[in-house]
Write a structure and sequence with these properties.
Elements: E1 2-5, E2 20-23, E3 26-29, H1 47-64, E4 72-79, H2 85-95, E5 102-107, E6 117-124
Parallel strand pairs: 4-5
Antiparallel strand pairs: 1-2, 2-3, 3-6, 4-6
């Protein structure tokens, strides 16, 4: 069974996709970027502030699907500058401190709206 997940507690999709899909025992999120869902504006600041908002958005989508950050199995992180990797890890460890998910981190040339970081996840429902 496939269910589309949408919540106003995370930014609306900026293209033809869903915030997440719940399929059986799993939730597959779309990549989240640092948009404040209350204002619709990009979060200002550096990688730290942007990564915090991205993970908060991810958390909201997962909760709307009946999941949580603690049930995340795998994340894929897209980062604009790998030199910011240690700062990203600091923020990431604030949200993922136990039962750490598997993770891939990929440096990319460009992300939507020229943000510094985007994260997608697969979690247990």
């Amino acid at each position: 069974m496939r269910q589309t997940i949408n919540t106003e507690k995370a930014p609306a999709a900026i293209g033809p996709y869903s915030q997440a899909i719940k399929c059986g025992d799993y939730v597959f999120t779309s990549g989240q970027i640092p948009i404040d869902p209350e204002t619709g504006e990009l979060v200002t600041g550096g990688i730290k502030e942007q990564a915090q908002q991205v993970i908060k958005n991810l958390e909201a989508v997962l909760e709307a699907a009946g999941s949580s950050l603690q049930k995340v199995i795998k994340t894929t992180v897209f980062i604009k500058d790998m030199n910011e990797f240690s700062v990203l890890n600091e923020v990431y460890s604030e949200f993922f401190s136990s039962s750490l998910p598997a993770r891939s981190t990929i440096e990319v040339a460009r992300l939507p709206k020229d943000v510094l970081v985007e994260i997608e996840a697969i979690a247990m429902a």
